Each structure stands twice: as C-alpha cells, then as structure tokens.
Amino acid sequence: MDAVAVERTEIASASPEPEPETTSERSAAAGWVYHLGVNSIGHQFCHLRYLLLRGNCLFMYKRDPHDNPTAILPIRKGLITHTLMLQDLGRRKLTAGTGTGDLYVLAFYNRLDGAKKGEIACATPAEVRKWYDAFHQAKHQAEYDLTSGTGRHRRLNTDDEINLEVRRPRVRRYAQHGLQKLVKIGKGPEMLLRQASKIGNNNVLSANIDDETGDALEAHDWRCVRTINGIRIFEDAANSKGGKGILLKSVGVVNASVDSVFEMVFSLDKRNRYDWDILTGDLELLEAKDGHCDIVYGKYEPKYLSWWNSKIDFVFSRQWFQGQDGNYTILQIPTTHKKKPSKSGYQRKKINPSIWEIGKLASLGHVAKCLVTQMVEVQPSFWDRWKGSQLEKFEKSIPFSLLCQVACLREYFAANPALMSESPSAIMQPKLLVPSSVNSDAEDQDTNDEFYDAIAIAEDEDSDDDNDDFADADADKGGKVKLKNVSWAIASLALKRSKASVADIELSGASPPVLIDWSQLNGSLRQAKSEQDSNCWSSPSGDGFMIRGKTYLTDRSKIAGGDPLLKLVAVDWLKAEHRIDAVALNPKCLVQTVAGKKIPFILVVNLQIPASPNYSLVAYYVSERPVNKESLLGRFVEGPDVFRDSRFKLIPSIVEGYWMVKRAVGTKACLLGKAVTCRYLRQDNFLEIDVDIGSSSVARSIISLVLGYITGIVVDLAILIEGKDEKELPEYILGTVRLNRVRLDSAVPL
C-alpha cells in the first residue's frame, strides 16, 4: 500500500440547547485512530485503536465495543481535566502493518508534567481537527465543573494518570447506555489501508462562506482582467507598500470538500497529479522540515508546451496550516537544496511565489463545495508587457500555468463524482456549561485515572463565529441577503460604545483617576515620532478592527473597534537564550519602578517568540482607575485561567509588508488560549499574560516566516475579551499596538 490512512468522519451531534445534561443526553465521540508511541524495548509502534470519548471520560479499545458490548473491554481509560494540552504536529510518514504513508498527528501532553504525553494519528487534518474539538468540548464541561465545584474530578488521584507511552492493565468495560447521540469519527478498520490515489468522502463541519476580509480591514483593489475556462483571474491594482511584485489570483468554485482539495494539492502521487497538474505534476520530496513544512523538487519535459525549448526543473518549499475555521492555506516559495543542484540538460527555473487558499462554502445536499484561490506574484515589468500588447505571451508562461491549476482542479473533481459527494453531517457544537445531573455507570466505576490533565481552553458556543468575516454581503437565517454597505456601517456606529461609557462600566468609579507622569514609564523599544519611523511602536485607533456588535448574537453584525480602553505606555523588545517568563517580576521592569507601583492597574502582554535567541515583545497597558471587579474585565483579571483562556482574543493585521506574510498571518480574530499556551501571573497591581507562540507548530511556522521579513513589516495588533452574551456586548478593544519595521538586532538582552 502507498499510504496508511483512517477513513473519513460521520457526525451525529448532540442538541446544543442550554438545558441540564443527563446521562441519555450526553454526546460522545468515537472512531478509529492510530496510537503512536515507543514500547518497553524502545521500538516505535503504530497501533490501530478505537477511541471512545464520552463527557470527559476517554476509553481506548482494540476492537469496536459496539460489536459486542459485554465482551470487549477497554485497554485504557481516564479523564480529561484542566491541564491537558493538545498540539497539531502536522504530517508524518508512518508504518502500520504492511502499509506506509503520510498521516496527521495530534499530540497530548500534561501542562504540569511533560513526562505524561502521547500521540494519535488520523488520515486527514479534518479528522485531527474534529478530535481536537472533541477534546476541547470535553474540557468545556470539565472546566466548568472545576470552577463551579460540581466536577467529580475533584476526587481524582492525580498520581494515577493514564500514560499513552506505558502499557497498562485492562480495565472494566464501558457502560453502553446513554449513547444515543454519538459523534462517530472513522468508518472502520476494513478501510484503514487504502491507496494514496483514493481520496474518499470527507465529512467536514458545515460552515457558511467566509469572505477574504477578516476582522481587520485590508487595502486591496482586485480587478478581474481575464476569464479562462470559467475561472476568473484578478489583478491587485492597489499600490500596496512593501510588495516585491504584482499580485495575481485565480478564483473558482470546486465541487469537493476542503479536505479533498487540500489532499489533492498537497499530494506527491504522480498518478493523481498527472490528471490535473500540467506544470508541477512530477514532484519528489527532498526534505520534511516538520509536519507543516517540506521541500520538494519538480521537473517538466516540454512535450506539450512547444514554447519551452528545454527541460526545466525547480525546487520550492511548501508550508501549510489549517485555521480555526477549518480553511487551508498553502505557501509555495522558491528555494534551493543541496540534494538537487542544477544538473545538465535541465534549465533551473524559479517557480513564482504563490499561495493556495481553500475555503469552505455552504454545502448543497450531499455535494460539498469550496472556494479555491491561487495567488501568484509576477514581476511588474513582465506583467506590464503581458497585459498590454503581448497578452498571448502571458499564456505561455509559468505564472499562467500556475493560475490555470484552479480550473484543472475543478474539472478533475467534476470528472470524478465519487470525490464530490459529502455524507450528511451536523455541526458538533459544545453544550453550554451546565452541571451534570446524572452520572453514568462508567462514571460510578473506580475511574481514578486521568487520561491527561487538561488546560482551560473553553470552546466557544459559536466557535465559527470568531472567524466570521466582515463581508459586503451576508446571509441571514432565512436565506435572504443583507447588504452591509456604507449606510449599514453608519447605522452600526450607534451600536458602538464610547470609550467613556466602557470605562464607566469596566473601571471603578469610586476612586478618582490617578495622575501619572508618563515620561517615567519607558521600555527598551522607543515610541514612534512619525508614520515613517522605523524600529519603534505606536498605539493606533481600534477603528481598523471589526468586533462583535450589540446585536451580534442575532444577526452576526460587527462594528469598528473604536478607541482602546487601556493606554499603551511602553514596549520592551527583549532577547534571551531561554523563553522569558514573568517579565513583570524582573527588578528592572516598568512594573517594579516607583512610578509603576503607583498605577492602579497594569496589563502586561508578553508575546514569546521562538528563535535563536528567543525574543519577547512585551507591551504595557495601564489604567488610571482601578478595575471594577464585577465587570467583564474584572472577571478576566481576577478569574481562573480556565475563564481567561476561553476569552482572551487577538486580532492581527499586517498594515505594510510582503503580500505572502500578509496572507499567512491573516486578519481573523484568534482565541489565543485555544491556539497556543497562555500563562497568567496575577500579583499586586498587574496581570501578566505570557503567550507561548512556540507551543504551537503552526504558530511557530508562521512566526518564522514573519521574522524573515520583519524589518519591512508594519503590524497592528488588537487585544480584547470576547463577549459571549448580550450583557457583554458590544465588545470593546482592550488595547492596541503598532510595530514599525522592528530590527532583531535591537532587542535588549535580559
């Protein structure tokens, strides 16, 4: 077999209504995965296992327990609690039985004890994402139980946790009653070994179309310049700063799931690629950097394109990641590699830098749909000639061949109807946090193991809503289109709270504002004197960010952010050999100065950047009045990490910089506690949030790309606390920061 894979997902969801959860109502997730690890003699293994997750109880079987509930016993079991950490490790070549191929790996580890860890593998990123969400859904209830005091995990013996790397004795079977609502992931072991060319049905979480615009406003002027085989080709006519060339893109709708299209685009199987890829059909893997990045070599013999008189070859890197909305992005950048120097008989070409964006569209019946976009960078001098009197020469170029790949993909899937269908599925939504009123028999057993101690990463009740785009047109529940034009934007201003009204709610009115001498509050990175200034910071308005409006829960309307509540007074740009934690406790930190100790409240946001050396970008936000403990901000400051992780949100926006960096970073709001590890330090008059970017392989890959272009980048960041009910809306911007072309060598050693 060419590949080892787990079949696709079938979903039946639990009711999301906010009512007390009983044994019969509690949903479960189950399916076949590969359990990865090292045995007692040091040999790696990849075993087929059946996982069953019910509530926050996890069971592992060698066979499907539904085949014979009275005889099939779990080989492991345990609980999901509040220190479990999950990490998507991307693709990895694995061997199971007689098959070898690429699988997608999800890692588990304990935030408090790194020795307790393990890995499972799935066939597609979508399956990994569904297991990821299922574990977070389990923690959603467990975290509520922890904070409310109703959780049975209060009685756990944390010294007896389950460890996937250690063989454990058999335990008693799982009680089968109360499983009417089952999220079934995987069709069965008979389909686990399959050819790489057989891309089966992908069942993905249904979602509405996401427009290109995210939660920060972007300056693009896309103009359709040509239509080829039903695929539109656009030119970005905006004079964006920091670009190295002209940006073109082709856009088309493909009747297939985002997972099927991603697998096809990323596949190296020539039998598949020859069916649709005219240029890069013959690819060879040179090096797998990590699960989200590799380097490939390709060659093309001009048998069909007569305008190429010689054989050509090329080397490029591919980086991919899947967003919290389930959409895929693939970056393709020309590079070199020692394994493939230029060779006689071939002309070495540089493939134009390009990006694939594969986004979900609303499915019609059982046919999945996705919007496929490919962006390609071309040199301005060539494009000026091509779009003028020599357009026919453009049709004989590498950029044109790349742009035509979207049309080729569409026709390929249209010619293979078996790849287009999508089994009916429902969205797996977490239930509202409510106490469990009845425990199952399984819960009454002596389950004193903890599968993994889980960190507080709460799932949003409307998880896809964080990534809703601020589109020009949106569809309401009745299917009617609502135009969000200028008049809508003007009307929405009435829904936005002023900074004064926000301060009256979030800050204490009992104490008068403290007079602060701002000149005494300084960081290592200087404040900007003008927009053209470099290696500095400033604090922009929040009007460039879109946040949830007052009526968001009913119509998903978003509004401009407005002025931040807290004032940015200083920024530190630090470096050290190891990750920098607890900056606020350093004697030389702003917080520890005489002036700093007089400030009623300081929010310290420490973005920890993995590199060599490690960097930390530390922003200090202050308030002239104490925080109202009854407000949303007060609950965030004084509340548990569980609550903080579920609410702390960041919106990025590359204002100026290379277009590929812009697309990789994006402009969509991200719940940081779900994406990366966040550590909190609450003392005296400050709260420090240490954001460990290196804890996520995806975030680590993106930040490495950003660091390569950092001296030409202007980036805006907005932080806020997510509002989830009507009393917490509209949202408000907590603080902003703009970083102007920061230099790595200007970082100060700590």
Automatic annotation (TrEMBL):
Renumbered residue ranges of the record's region Disordered: 1-26
Classification via Pfam families: EDR2_C, START
Protein name as catalogued: ENHANCED DISEASE RESISTANCE protein (DUF1336)
Signal peptide annotation: none
GO molecular function, one term: lipid binding
Lineage: Eukaryota, Viridiplantae, Streptophyta, Embryophyta, Tracheophyta
PANTHER family: ENHANCED DISEASE RESISTANCE PROTEIN (DUF1336), ENHANCED DISEASE RESISTANCE-RELATED
Top-level taxon: Eukaryota
